[in-house]
Fold:
Amino acid sequence: MKELNQDYFTSTPRKQTLLYPNAPWYFGLAVSITWLGFSRSYFSRLTQTDLYHHLHGASAGLWMGLLILQPILYRRGQLALHRKLDWIGTIVLVPGLPC
Structure:
């Protein structure tokens, strides 16, 4: 059986290319824009906001942080940690959906 990274008809290894090599930068830009957008409506009124909104903001921030970290881990070949954090991201995201 041939390895997955080899061509089907030849034994020549194929060059693997990343689909989105700049994904961490794109997600970092999206997080920066999100933080800028919430700077007046949320961050300037932290003491006036209820616990529910703090938990929602923390889970959304954690999830967006994982969006930056996941492609970096994949690129470095740390797939075991990448997969563990994937489950954590799923657990963090699902409760925040009804918000």
User: Anything to note?
Assistant: The two ends are 48 Å apart (CA to CA).
